[in-house]
Each structure stands twice: as structure tokens, then as C-alpha cells.
Amino acid sequence: MKFLFFILFAHSSCNKTIISRLLGQIIRLLVVFGAVGCSVYDDPILPDVKSFAGVSGDEPRSVIEARRVLKRGGTAADAATAMYFVLSVNLPSAASLGGGGVCLVFRPKTKKEAESIEVLEFFTKASKDNSLNAVRPSAVPGNPMGIYALHSKYGRMKWGELIIAGERLARFGSKMSTAFLRDYKVVENALLEDKESQKIFLGKNMEKPRVGDVLVQTDLANSLSLIRSKGAKYFYGGEFAERLVRQVRKIGGTLSLEDLSSYKPRWVNTVSMYFGGDFFRKHRAHFAPPPATSGILRAHILGMLERSGSLTDSQKENAYHQMLRSSQIAFGNRNKWMKPDFTSNVSEKVLLSENYIDELWNIGNGLKHIPTKTLFPSSPARPENPSATSFVIVDKWGMSVSCEFTMNNNFGIGRVAPGTGIMMAATPLGVGRGSLSLGPMMIINQHSSQLLLAASSSGGVASATSLAWVVANTYLTKEELRKSMNKARVHHSAVPDKAYFESGVGKNIKSSLQQKGHYLASTNSIGKVNIIYCSDGLPRAPETCDVQTDSRGDGMSLSIIEQD
Predict the structure, then answer these.
(1) Which residues contact 448 (CB under 8 A, 6 or more apart)?
(2) pLDDT, average across residues 78-104
(3) Which of 548, 397, 392, 553 shows the shortest CA–CA distance to 480?
(4) How many whole angstroms from its chain centre is CA 352?
(5) Which end of the chain is more exposed for a tag (fewer CB within 10 A), N or C?
(6) What residues pair up with 494 in beta bridges, in sequence order?
(7) With the CA atoms of 71, 72, 75 and 76 taken in that order, what torsion angle do they form, in degrees rounded to the nearest 10?
(8) Residue 8 pLDDT more than 60?
(9) Which of 103-117, 118-132, 390-404 is modeled with the greatest confidence?
(10) pLDDT higher than 60, residue 439
(11) How confident is the model at residue 274 (pLDDT cuts 50, 70, 90)?
């Protein structure tokens, strides 16, 4: 700034127009590099740049529908609403109307941070009726009311317009995707013990489904029609709710009218930390708080990777070692703060404080692998919920939505409530269930209210490490997003004390890891990530944005780039 004043006063005889242009150029540079904390909503500085909107998800048809909504001028919340209801039809294994989830929402126009970025929790809940001796304990659904809350607060388009695509796909048929069949084949035999599932998935000819087969779900279409015409509240009260309770109990599940009528989603604050090491400390990483437990895990891994400085190291072996070390410590330490219901016995502000992450980083010597039983003697093995799907969306105004959904088990309880078409989620109680592996994130320039990154992931226990690896390589080293997504991954969850690696990890790296004491185990793939990255911020610099889905899955990413 001293340089700026020198120019103005030392050249007072210069033409005022020249000075004005020079001043404008300097301000442009300051804004681009973040030195001036203003927003394009306050003073549009680059009016002729292209706008950017994008969506990435695990199921292609839902991505196409979300892009269509964005193209029509809908907000990210509108697109998320339409996308979810297509998912409820095309991916009931992870996103049925009977499931639940969590979304992180950012809106640049809002001045107060607490209002500009927040978390919407709509987790499934266990039934309150303990008198129900159920063969297959099921959950209280969260998705319909959660998505309704998202649309009510941030949507522009009419509710019914956004559900109609999913309803039509259910009624007239939707082609089975590779993403759906990947989940289906894992539980096919158990699933087909259910007559309702047979009717849906085998069709009239009772033949096993293949990619491209048309899936017709008339009962589900009728349920969606009621939600479209009467609102999500009708799902939780009235005649439909009574029928749903009866049918769920008929298939051995747990559900009561009180469960449904008392269900409410929650808007809560994010948990956050400074991230990226920028001089002005503008950039803040935001995560969903517990009981979306993976949010804290992702933050801890990223915080330790930032402190290691290993990702910019010319020795790739050290980067992989530090990734394994960071994830081992994060998972091992989790048992110190996580309660049985996945909430925290330590303040989230403390958990993400610089001192706390410094302490984590200083565990062990950092040069060699130290066995988990030495670092965390009481760390138990903990199976994690593998059922999840995710997406990220950003509109041209910079509003972004990052969501993760779960059925608490692949296809939930494996039973459809007769006459509704709804696959019921499993109870969130018990081993390997619930919101343990959920935790969408974003990175925001808090001074200029710009979105820098939005990410979500799935893959059970590996969801945290896969997302952290991609974000760290993209954001800390400024590596091209596609390259970061395709880079081979590793994973360590403390127990078992194994370093899992993908086939792309080279021989030299594996040899180095073994020399450092890691016990290696190969695996086909580690996690599935969906991500949007804008290196200079959105909506300020849309030309710097990219959106990617994970090649390890069967999803899709699409963008809309146009002139303002």
C-alpha cells in the first residue's frame, strides 16, 4: 500500500485519467491475490468474466438433472433438491427416501459468517418405541424433511418443479446405472428374499438386472407424487405416515407415528480452522461437526499434512509416509474424544485449535512408523458404515452445497415398505452404523466471502483419507485437480495396523514405506471423492474453477461456463 501512495503523490502532475487507470489495475491485483477483503457483490471489479456453475456426483442421471436446474437459473439448493430426488430413485442403496444425511451450505451474499456457511443435519434416528421387537430394526427417515428444509431456506424454484424429474423416472422407468448395480450385486441374494424387492429389481420376467435395464417403480412414483403435491411434511404426518408405519412394521422394521411427527432437521454451525498458510490468514476450512464424525477426522489429517510440508517435498516417499502417519494418528486419537453416540466429549473449538493439532502432529518421531498399540494402546477395531453417496454443487452466484447421504447399511434393512416403494434405512444404532463416516467440507476466503473449495466423499472408513489426500494435494501444492484425483492413494485407520495402498503406488514408494516400518496391504480402491475447486475464488474468478468426480466410481461431473 505504501507503494500505491508513493505513485499517487510522486506523480501528482500526471493525467488524472492515467492515475485512475493505474489505481484500478492495482486494486484488481490486490483483489485477485486476496489483499483486499471486498466481495464482487460490494463492487463488481471484473464485470466481463465468464460465470461458472458445476455439479459432481456418484450417479450420472442425477448429475444431469442438477445441471439442467442450474442451466434454468436455479440455485445450488434447487439443483441439490432435484438431484436428491433422482438419487432416491436411481440409487436407493445409499439415498432412499428412508435414509438420512448432512449438507454444508455456503452463500457468498450473506455478510455474517454464521449465516453464510452452515450445516444442515438430517440424520436418520432410532425409533423411540422400545416396545417394538423388530426382526430388522429400521430408522426414522431424514431425507425428505432435510431436503425440504434446504429448499425452503435457499431455493428459488417451485418445490414441485424439482421433484417431477425423479417422479417421472420412477413411474416411466429409469435405466440402471453401473453405480446402482455395483451396490446391488454385493447384497443381491439377501435383497431378493424380499418379494417387494423382487418386484422392483427383477421385473416381470424375473431376470437379474443388467446395466441399461429399465427400472420401473410405480409405488415409489406415487409416494413422490404425494411429496410433490403436498410437501415433505405429509410424509411425516397424516394418512401417508400412518400407512408407512403399518407397512414398516409388517416387514419387521421399527417406526411409530411419534417418531415421524417429532422428526426435525437441524441447522447448526460448522467447525472450522485456518488452513493453507496464507499470510493474511483469510482461508478457513469448514467441516460438518459431530455426529458427522468424519469431519473432525478430515480436519485433523489435513492439519497434520499442512504441518508436515511433505507434499511439496521432492521425495514422494515421504509424502505417502506422512499421509499414513497423519491418518493413523487421527483415527487412533478419535477414541479419546468420540462418545458412543458419535458426539464429542471435547469442545469442537478445542479439537480444531492450532494447539490441539500441533499436539497430534508431535505424537511419535515422524520419521518411522510406530505401531498403533504403542501410540494408542486402548484403540479398538471399529467397523464403519460403508453405505454412502455424495455430491457437490455450485451455482453461478457462488452458492455451494456439499452433501453426503447414508442408509446405515447397503440398501438399509434390505426391505421395501409394501405399497410405498421406499427402501428403509437400518437403525443408526449398533456396530458399523450411523453417521460415523460422514463429513462434507468447504474452504472459504472469509475476508472476501469467496468459495475456494467444496468437497464430499464416500467409501466408509476410507472416506476421510481419500478426501484429505485430494484436498491436500490440490489446495496445498496447487496441483491440477484432475491429477490430484487420479493420484494413487494410501490409507491407515490405526486398527488394523496396516498401510493400505492402491495399485498405482510405485515400487520405490512401497519399498520406502516398508523400510519405515509400515505393514503394507493392497486394495482395489480407496474412497470416492466429488470436488469443486476455484483457486482464486467464486464468484470473483470463475475462470479459475474446475469440477471433478472420482474415476474410482461411476459418477459424473458437469459444468456450465458462460459470459455474464
Answers:
(1) 31, 34, 36, 37, 38, 39, 282, 537, 540
(2) 98
(3) 548
(4) 19
(5) N
(6) none
(7) -40
(8) no
(9) 390-404
(10) yes
(11) very high
Average pLDDT over residues 251-255: 94
**57, β-bridge pairs:** 391, 556
SS3 354: helix
Please, are residues 326 and 332 in contact by the beta-carbon 8 Å criterion? no
Q: Do 76 and 400 meet the contact criterion of CB atoms below 8 Å apart?
A: yes
- Residue 38 C-alpha cell reads as 471486498
The predicted structure's pLDDT at residue 173: 95
Percent of the chain surpassing pLDDT 90: 74
Predicted pLDDT at 29: 44
Q: How far is CA 458 from the centre of its chain?
A: 7
Closest CA to 553 of 532, 531, 533, 535: 531
- Per domain, the residue ranges of the chain are 2-32, 62-268+398-423, 272-385+441-563
| Contacts of 371 by beta carbon, 8 Å cutoff, 6+ apart | 497
Name the phi and psi angles at 501, rounded to 5: -140, 150
The cell numbers describing 184, all together, are: 446391488
Beta pairing partners, 444: 284, 451
Residue range 136-162: mean pLDDT, rounded: 97
pLDDT of 277: 64
Tell me what pLDDT residue 46 has.
Answer: 39
Alpha-carbon distance 51 to 538, whole Å?
9
The answer, yes or no, to whether residue 224 has pLDDT greater than 80, is yes
The residue type at 324:
L
Is the pLDDT confidence value at 512 over 60?
yes
Q: How far apart are CA 297 and CA 438, in angstroms?
A: 10
Please check whether residue 106 is in contact with residue 454, taking contact to mean a CB–CB distance below 8 angstroms: yes
CATH of 272-385+441-563 given 3.90.226.10, 3.30.1330.60, 3.30.70.2640, 3.60.20.40: 3.60.20.40
CA distance 527 to 389: 11
Q: For the chain, how long is the longest CA-to-CA vector? A: 89
- Calpha distance 144→88 (Å, rounded): 10
pLDDT greater than 70 at residue 493? yes
Residue 19: what pLDDT?
42
Residue pair 467/300 in contact (Cβ under 8 Å)? The answer is no
Instruction: Note the pTM of the prediction, 2 decimals.
Output: 0.88
SS3 548: strand
- DSSP per position, 18-71: HHHHHHHHHHHHHHHTT-S---TTTS-S-TTSEEEEEEEESSHHHHHHHHHHHH
- Following DSSP, what letter does each residue of 371-417 receive, concatenated? -HHHH-TT----------EEEEEE-TTS-EEEEEEE-SSTTTTS-EE
Averaged pLDDT, 356-376: 93
CB contact burial 464-491 (16+ within 10 A = b; e otherwise): bbbbbbbbbbbbbeebebeebbebbbbb
Query: Does position 357 have pLDDT exceeding 80, yes or no?
Result: yes
Give residue 280's pLDDT: 66
Helices (H) and strands (E) in the chain, counts: 22, 22
Average pLDDT of every residue of the chain: 88
Residue 126: its H or E element? strand 125-126
